[in-house]
Hints:
- This protein has 369 residues and is of the alpha/beta class.
- The chain has eleven helices and 15 strands.
Amino acid sequence: MRHTLSSAKVFVFYLIVLLFFPLLILLGFACWYGLDVADRYTRIDVRYVGDNDIVVDSELGFRRPRNAITRRIEPGIEYNIYTDNLGARVNRPGAQTADKVTILTVGDSFSEGYGFENEQTYTERLGEMFGLPVANFALGSYSALQALISLKKNVSLAPSVIIFGMIEDDLRRSIDPCAPNFFPVCLEVPTVGGIGRDPYIIPPDRAAVSGTQISIDLMDEQKAQSWGNRIILGLRMAFYEFQTVKKRWRLGMEPTQQAKAEAGLFVIREMVKIARELKASLILLYMGRLDGEDPATESDGWMPLPAAFLSGLPEEVIFVDATHAVKDFLARNPGPKLTLPKDDHPNAKAHELFAEILKQKITTVRSSK
């Protein structure tokens, strides 16, 4: 007995056949495109062995992972990053910051000790000089605002000396919703809003696809080169680019000196409030130029602090300008540089100089109390 397919079944069969090949081509294109995007974004000279350098944080945008062991490797630079159960940088795996510290540092990569071991940072050197417990919560790409939030999150350590190590760009970063990143994606961070009126803190943007999480995943891809993971990551990147095209266009505008000054002063005043509550001294260490040129000169990416920021600093702030000491040091010692090879970050020698400058200030502060 012959069975014939109904016209409906025949239609469905041919429809499936017709759709199968276009879908197969589309899937192949998606795989190729995902791999291509992932390759473009992972073509960098930085890699981590061990834990990743950052994790997502709802208040800070990102922070160091807790109890992490990381080795950062890039051309000319290779060093270890160990953290404790607070995310503070420590000297060895498993080491923990004391329950109470005397000196607490916040800031960006200039204070974190980018490029060398924690023992060589000015924070750790000060701890050795005074024989006192210290904590370093500085992290690369942080803004002045993130330094403030880091301080707020760790006030339980009850420091008697708070050091905010800063550069001029920390002020600009405080009003930029995207932190500096070696990937062309946004590290979503909090910003200072209400400039020109009543400043307030705007939390990090919670995008459908987080640039911060993508950055973390991109670094993981340096370890796990799975094709499937790279395809998915590449497609996420493509969606991220589509999702943020307007935002990235708006972020191209440079803030004014006045806006940077107002954002910075808002942060400093909030830090002063915390210092008052803790009965602590607030030291603002300005690192600025490290090439020996006139600190007031604008060149090679260096910019002096806005005049309105300096004139508006509260009286309680102990302002330490390291740029003049740097210029004097390089004039007396023309051989050694104070920056990393092929990089403008301070090296271990610069941190040694910062520690000596700060030692004098801290000794004066402690003797006056």
